[in-house]
Amino acid sequence: MAFDVVIAGGGFGGLYAARRLERRLPRHSARIILVSDVNFLLYTPLLPGAAAGSLEPRHVVVPIREELEWADLRLGRITGADSGVNEVYVRTLDERDETLRYDQLVVALGSVSRVLPIPGLAEHAVGFKSLADGIALRNRALVNLEIAESLPDDESRREYLTFVFVGAGYAGVEGIAELQDYVNDTIERYPSCRGAGTRWILVETLDEIMPEIPASLAEFASRELRARGIELRTGTRLERMDERSVTLSTGEQLPTRTVCWTAGVKPPAIVKELGLPLTEHGRIDVDPTMRVRGQHNVWAIGDAAAVPDPAQARKAPSPPTAQHAIRQGRVVGSNVAARLAGKKPRPFRYRTLGVFVDLGQHKAVATMLGLPLRGFPAWFAARTYHLAMMPGIARRVRLAVDWTVGLVFGRASAELGQLGHPPSLKDYLDEVPQSGEAPDR
User: Fold this and answer.
1) Whole-number Å distance between alpha carbons of 363 and 383
2) Do the domains at 3-111+267-352 and 114-264 have one common CATH topology?
3) Alpha-carbon span 324 to 166, nearest angstrom
4) Domain 3-111+267-352 part of CATH 3.40.50.720
5) In this predicted structure, what is the pLDDT of residue 438?
């Protein structure tokens, strides 16, 4: 009898769980179905590079089908589940409702941006979680330069040349550093904008940036950002915003047309519809083996799960990082295979090997096996690590070529906001020809 294993989610955790299951289960003994809303994995640590034009967007994604040997990929979104009857419900791309039965279920649904109810935020800010977010941010920066260049004076240009990032975690720091690099490279082609200059502000509620890394490295990163003219507003909140400005908790009002929101993530809303136990923060409650508490055949990993962190004596959940999701995927794949073979699953034991924060301009901060690095050595270590972790030799070569070309020739400044959104043919529809009149060819 063949077992049915369903994996809900095609991010780092889901993909690596599927790959481990393919290696641990004989093909005739199981059917592995991976459900994802897209057919690729976004290598999220490289998103700032794609947003800043130093990497081709296609080179920071991994087509899932290319990485699977015999598991079945189903494109669609999870709409619910019933663990009482071992069923998962899926809405396909063509809007059909399907029911998948399972013997073992792995929930790896990742996370979404945590958007607070700040007036104007949802309507006017840009996120920084998906590839679409990154490209939209780059396009907005270029459009701002084009508009500012056409305006008559520096005062009217100011709001288009001011960029505000909210949230000074990894994403916010890397995002603002990389985008500033990109705009500084590109602004040479905009003489009026170059004369007016740009302004960059990073807003953080806490009193320091990146509390996840050692204080000495965070201080180095702060000094580096300030030296480049990036203004740090720590201990400050975004109070409200509109299309043309933001107001901070200090009362300061900043004219700006670009606000990027990077202040945290949360589990997707569908997690609440799965009928599984949740922690107070909305993540799925699991034991050290990543099995959902109270369930014998449901597992949860990645950002949507509160996997006990061995580095914190299992008293707090593991951080929502790619390196944790990858290792959780591998371990849960082995545990599911062990469970199907009647063996005992093992607990998740991974501890963070290192942290890399790219600051642009060939500088970074990092910790590797407890060793702190900063400046060029950290930047080089970060590039080397990401090359090693990217699946597939061909993709590693493409990344290396992108980085090398960028060093030698700089970055392109074409605004590609229409990419994937062509105008309708209705816009060019001719009038109906009169009777007996042949249409033009």
Assistant:
1) 11
2) yes
3) 25
4) no
5) 59
The pLDDT of residue 214: 81
Q: Are 167 and 127 in contact (CB under 8 A)?
A: no
Domain range summary for the chain, segments of one domain joined by +: 3-111+267-352, 114-264, 353-408
- Give the pLDDT score at 227: 92
Residue 233 and residue 246: Cα distance in Å, rounded? 13
Say if CB 168 and CB 202 are below 8 A apart. yes
Q: In what order do the strands lie in the sheet with 258-261?
A: 126-127, 258-261, 162-166, 199-204, 230-234
Q: What is the pLDDT of residues 179-221, one digit of tens each?
A: 999 999 899 999 999 999 999 999 999 999 988 788 888 898 9
Instruction: Write b or e for each residue in 194-230: b if 16 or more Cβ atoms lie within 10 A of its Cβ, otherwise e.
Output: bebebbbbbbbbeeebbeebeeebbebbbebbeebeb
Contact 248, 235 (CB under 8 A): no
CATH fold of 114-264: FAD/NAD(P)-binding domain (3.50.50)
Average pLDDT in the chain = 91
Query: Is the pTM higher than 0.85?
Result: yes
Pairing of strands 258-261, 162-166: parallel
Q: Which residues in the chain show pLDDT less than 70?
A: 415-419, 432-441
pLDDT the model gives residue 358: 87
Phi-psi region of 348 (alpha: psi -120 to 50; beta: other; left: phi over 0): beta
Q: Report the amino acid identity of residue 129.
A: K
